[in-house]
Amino acid sequence: MTWQAGPGATPPSSPLRHPPPTEVELRAERLKKELRWTADEEGWSIIRPDKDVEWDERFRNKLRVYIDPAPSEKREDTNSSAS
Question: For the whole model, what pTM was predicted?
Fold first, then answer.
């Protein structure tokens, strides 16, 4: 059975409308996928569970740990600030 054109009908899928990708397009797509794969591999090497924690000495005086005061200390602070 062949496709027959009716009024206003278009062929289902035509190679002229959607040509196959060129060699350049295929290479570009492959390069994009390879770069993504490489980035994923590098990312996994950073967060691997068996890897030790990384420390950079530039963080030494830049990071601080804030500890919430105990609930009893919080109540005392709010009473003293109201007076």
Answer: 0.43
